[in-house]
Every structure is written in C-alpha cells, then in structure tokens.
Amino acid sequence: xxxxxxxxxxxxxxxxxxxxxxxxxxxxxxxxxxxxxxxxxxxxxxxxxxxxxxxxxxxxxxxxxxxxxxxxxxxxxxxxxxxxxxxxxxxxxxxxxxxxxxxxxxxxxxxxxxxxxxxxxxxxxxxxxxxxxxxxxxxxxxxxxxxxxxxxxxxxxxxxxxxxxxxxxxxxxxxxxxxxxxxxxxxxxxxxxxxxxxxxxxxxxxxxxxxxxxxxxxxxxxxxxxxxxxxxxxxxxxxxxxxxxxxxxxxxxxxxxxxxxxxxxxxxxxxxxxxxxxxxxxxxxxxxxxxxxxxxxxxxxxxxxxxxxxxxxxxxxxxxxxxxxxxxxxxxxxxxxxxxxxxxxxxxxxxxxxxxxxxxxxxxxxxxxxxxxxxxxxxxxxxxxxxxxxxxxxxxxxxxxxxxxxxxxxxxxxxxxxxxxxxxxxxxxxxxxxxxxxxxxxxxxxxxxxxxxxxxxxxxxxxxxxxxxxxxxxxxxxxxxxxxxxxxxxxxxxxxxxxxxxxxxxxxxxxxxxxxxxxxxxxxxxxxxxxxxxxxxxxxxxxxxxxxxxxxxxxxxxxxxxxxxxxxxxxxxxxxxxxxxxxxxxxxxxxxxxxxxxxxxxxxxxxxxxxxxxxxxxxxxxxxxxxxxxxxxxxxxxxxxxxxxxxxxxxxxxxxxxxxxxxxxx
Length: 666
Hints:
With 666 residues, the chain is an alpha+beta fold. The protein folds into two domains: 3-28 and 364-626, Dipeptide-binding Protein, Domain 3 (Dipeptide-binding Protein, domain 3, Roll); 62-309, Periplasmic binding protein-like II (D-Maltodextrin-Binding Protein, domain 2, 3-Layer(aba) Sandwich). The protein has 15 helices and 21 strands. The strands form seven sheets. A five-stranded mixed sheet has the order 13-19-14-18-17. A four-stranded mixed sheet has the order 1-12-11-10. It has a four-stranded antiparallel sheet with strand order 4-5-7-6, with helices on one face. β6 (191-198) and β7 form a beta hairpin. α3 (157-169) packs across α4 (226-234), α8 runs antiparallel to α10 and α14 (589-599) runs antiparallel to α15.
C-alpha cells in the first residue's frame, strides 16, 4: 500500500465540490494523423490526364437530420460535406496548402458566385458615404453572369437579397421569430438592407461595422435560390417543411437529376458541379455530374458521388479497410494505428492523408472562482486552484506535450504556442505570443515560490514526494475530464495525471467528468458539464468554424459585456438562460476590448492587429493549455486522384477528383 493510500483524505480547495460523477456535455474531436507518408499522393495525375467517369462512395458516420444542417438550421460538418459539391456561395474555400502562409483573412476565400472579394482597401466595402445614410458599412457584391441554378433559374442579385431576407430581414429585423428554426443569426442581424442594384450587383447595408462580413453568403449554402425562397417568404413558410416542386434536370442537363416534390431538407438545389439525384434517409445521398455547370473549365470528372450513411465511426473504419467506401473522412486518432498497419502491410485499398486543422486539442481550466459571479454556478463547481494563474502556468510547464504528440500523433502535428488563434489563421503568426516548453524544474520552483508547498497531509505522489497544499493549507486537487468514448483522450488524461503528479499536483485517477461526447457537450439546460462549468480541467478541441476567421473565438473567451454582446458572446449562466460558449468563465476587460475592436472593424489589416493583441493576451491569461494542433485523418482510395485538402470542408473541390480509368475501387 502506498503512503498516500494509508493517510486520511486531506482537505482541498474543492471541499464543497459535488462528490457524485457529473453527467453531461457537447462536440466531437475529429482529429487524426499518420506517422508515415501515404504510398502515393492522391493529388498526382497518372499520365498527366484526368480520366472521366466512375462512381465514388464516401462514408458519412454522422448523418444530418436535415440537409439544412449545412449552416441553416444546424451546424454539422457532414451536412456541409454532403452539400459542398452542389451548393455554392459568394466566396468559396481554398486549400490548406494555399493558405499556409496567408497575409490576410481574405486569403482563405476565393471568388465563386461573386467575381471578386470585397474589401475596404479594394473599394468593395465602404465605412462612410453609403447610399443609405443609416448604414455604417455597405458591401457591394458583383455576381458572375451566366450562372444557372439546377432548377433552371438564373442566378441574380435577387437570390442574394432573398438570402439576406430569409436569414434576418424578413423576420428578425421586425422582431418576429423565423418560421424556419435557424442555427444562428449572428452577423445577419447586423444587416439593415439588401439592394438589388442591377441583376448582377447587390449592395448589403450594415447598421455597424461587422468584421466577419465575408462569411455572410459565402461557403456551403451561402446563397439560396430565390425560386424557392420567394413563395416561402410570401407564405411565411418553414424551409424545412414547405414542399416545393423541383426539376433539377432543367439547369443541369442531367436526366438522372432529381425531379419531383420535396423540401430543401431532403433536396439540394444549387449551382455546383454536381447535382442532387436522390436522398434515401438513413441510407445514402446520391449526387450526379452537372454537365451544364457554369464553369465549363471546371467540369466534374466523376459521374456520381454516393454518400453512404454509416451507423457509427467504427463501422465506417471497417468499411474503409474493406474498400466498401472509397473515401473515409474525419476517422479520428483512435483509428490511426489500424489504418497505418493496413497501409504498411500493403493490403489496404487506400492511402492515409492527414491535414492540419484550424485549432488545437486543449486542456481548458475552470476560472469561475475569479469571474466575479458571472458563472453563477454553485460554489461546489468552482476551483480556486485552476483560477490561480501561477498554478495554471505551472501546469503548462509541467505537461510533456511533446511526449503526448509522440504517443498519439507522431510526426504529423506540433505543440502550438501558448495561444493558438493563428492555427487556421496564419496571418496572425506573432513573435509576441510566448511558446513555453516542458520545464518541470521551473514549474516546481514557481509553485514553491508562491507558497504552494508539499505537505504530508496531502498524500504522496508515485515518486514518493508529497502532493502540494496551497498557502491557506488546503490541498491542491484538480480533476480532469473528457469524452469517455474517445480512447485517445482517455490515454492523454493518464499522461497528464502522471506529469502533474511530478510537480506535486494531485489529479484523481477517477477522471471526471468522463462521459460520452453527446453528454460532455450537452446544453446548459441539460446540465452539460462544459456549459454549466462543472469541471476543473476539460480536454477537448477548440477550432475555427469559418475559414481564417478568429471571431469564432469571441464566443469562447468574451466575458462580461454588460448586455452588449451578441448572443454567442457570454458566459453561460441562469441569467443568460444558458446562452454562451465561454465555458471557462474567463472574464478579462482587456481581452474583451481587443475582441470587440476586431469584430467591429471592416478593415482587414486593423482586424488582424487587434486579433494579434488578443492572441498575446490569451497567452498571458492562459485559460487553456494547447496540447497539439488538431490533425484530421482522411483516407482515399488508391485509385482516386485530384484531391486537395481543406480541414473545414474536405470535399470542397470534388470537381477535380477522378479515378484511374474511371474505376474508383482501390
């Protein structure tokens, strides 16, 4: 029996903490990598020519409940993946390789249905002198001519303005609830008018300068067809349930395209290189080639893409290994060893292709004990230890993050700087952000100097030294929790526990809250441990939701805004009815000011400056320890070529994909 086991349970800074296991919380880490390169690159072109034809099957292990989950009624990455070959926006995504050394957030977008990226510097964005004197900012979008919707109608400025009407102007601006449940109105609610200047020009007026304006109307489901929205808006209908007659053969020239009555929850009406053929809920979604695509130099090579709905991730991994699906996306780190083994044995019909993600796997701290009561959760859920800046810094120095990388993602990811806002926004790279290394000697010295000394009453660590007590005599005990259904994270928990024991910080072996992902990321109303701040340290992924757009992190770090925040920017509490994504409870006026300035500026250079300041401030405050840059594991058939990677929407460029001789089987 160890010395620690023979001693009575010591008092801790969390003596009022609930003793029953916590059950609840939300989000899925989709990360992965391979320690060796694939046997061949899926981007190479055999013989220098791209073969025509073929059917490609893509596994989907998180089925959307509606196709509108691609940013309208929900936010599900696999809904984006299904819609990306069909739906287009004003601007479109660029590959990860093309943005690795970006100088502006505009570098993360390319013109799509619009002919140019509007900016202040380029004259497409005005912050004074708008035609409407009530507008603090106006954005002019010039549209491509000759673009046809798959339903046969022409793309015009009316489609653009109808989209803005649908998301905000028709209902939200009038204080009425939208008949279609919307996932978010953030940004759209800054719009006061959309003007159809002519058929190919739309001007969007904003009541304030809104920095993330490029994302409104861009990407998957960016612009919606007026042919569907006009009758819907006139009837105050619900886009998810309102039945419409579709004939997608008219605009695509493909007789296999969908023709019949349905809702946009089951039919995709877009302008892209593929057109919807069928949707069999729970089974598959079939897309076929659009020979009448507006970009005749970018016609699709494949005849058909079948999105196969898998019951779970394990089944998808099995089907990838057997060749039942030719593309596996977001397979996760836990699947990596088996995938690597199959590739190394030369028996696999696929290659493993990791892509660096826009974010990091982090260890978040509960700071509610220092938030001034904003969390409003019971004292049992506050931890003075994790709210202590010295202890947080010591934890950063005391965790061997390089060892974690070597254990879970050798050779394909790196340990970030102390703040990771630049991951996925490389134009924010700054020498002003510290990059701490593994230094347990300094960690121990810091804790000693702060009066957090080793004490016999706190029990003994595995190395025989006593755990630490704080200056007030209570023992430092810090729980760690994560998604229990992710074996990689559970492994990392144990590594963290071992490392922190060496600097005298006691992390109980009964990790909590360790619950399945669906519960771990549960909503406030459901008692989700992140949303209700019911954790000491939580292990999960934080990443950008939009290309190159750090405003994503405002909702994660913004504190007390005095009622002026947009809905997502607040610490969830009973006072806010659980609205908000600031799980740590971080409340810092300097950081808030930096984030606010960046959001309220349309000047991309000024925004980058303010976000760089926010990045530096986050590194100093250390509300979370970044463990390693997120890496996403995708697999592709050995016969598939033309693939370029994007971490947010991996199939954003499917028109370029083709298979050897039109045969996609590995």
